[in-house]
Amino acid sequence: MNFTAHPARSGHAPPTETRARPASRARAPFKIVSWNLLRRTGAAVDDVAALVAREKPDLLLMQEATRAIGFLLDRIGGHYAWAPLPGRIHGLAMWSPKPWPAPPRVITLPSGALVHRVCQILDLGDFGVANVHLSHGQMLNRRQLRRIVGELPPRAAVLGDYNIVGPALIPGFRDVGPRQPTHAMVEVLPLRLDRCLARGLICHEHAVLPRGRSDHRPIVVHLGPAPEAHAPGRFKGMAAAVARLRRGDGSAGRVRRDPPG
After folding, report:
1. CB-based contact 201:174 (threshold 8 Å)
2. Residue 75: CB partners within 8 Å, gap ≥ 6?
3. What is the per-residue pLDDT across 38-90, written as a single tens digit (0 to 9) for each?
4. Closest by alpha carbon to 217, among 30, 47, 46, 95?
5. In the chain, N or C: fewer CB atoms in 10 Å?
6. Average pLDDT estimate for 13-39
7. 180: closest CA among 223, 217, 205, 213?
8. Which residue segments constitute the domains of the chain, with CATH numbers given?
């Protein structure tokens, strides 16, 4: 179930001057913070509100968020969506200071024996964002990732608590988030569980933040579209052009077979 706070609509179109800006003007990177709150005993609404005030993210992703985190709207306003895990008191949540183009979708993931998992997917127009809290099983959580990336647009980022040890090995995606540990298992073994994988995007900055009352440290990334030469779909277009030549008179193939000179 997805609970979304819908913004009030003014009925007015955006100012035309925002559409008339020169195409060469670069857009500022999009700042995303992701934090596993640690349900009930961890970070509360006051802690989340303080993080927002300090970091001023364009998008905040949360894992292990309980229903009580929804009171964030009363504290700081904005726009909020909560997707509880089936049969659990906690789940995934998103907060933004600005309205979304459309409410985030919730998809079900391959489930383990005890916990059924879901994923929130938000389409921002320029790129998509998936908010995840994956299972602990190292084969299962990678299956869940493959299910998620199949739902994403060409430019996309997957952030959250991966519970993955070692590389994720998802074709087309790069691990662009911070490399410092974000969680200490039984306060002894440091692990980098909170990550950001991206496709068609560049991470301009990243950091690991103080953990506060949670057992996870938040991560922050500043994302922007990759240049066209590196964007997904560019190579598909080139391959399609070559295929059209081959389907023609086969000249592309003959050029490769002719001897030099």
Report:
1. no
2. 45, 46, 49
3. 998 999 999 999 999 999 999 999 999 999 999 999 999 999 999 999 999 99
4. 47
5. C
6. 69
7. 217
8. 27-226 (3.60.10.10), 227-261 (no CATH)
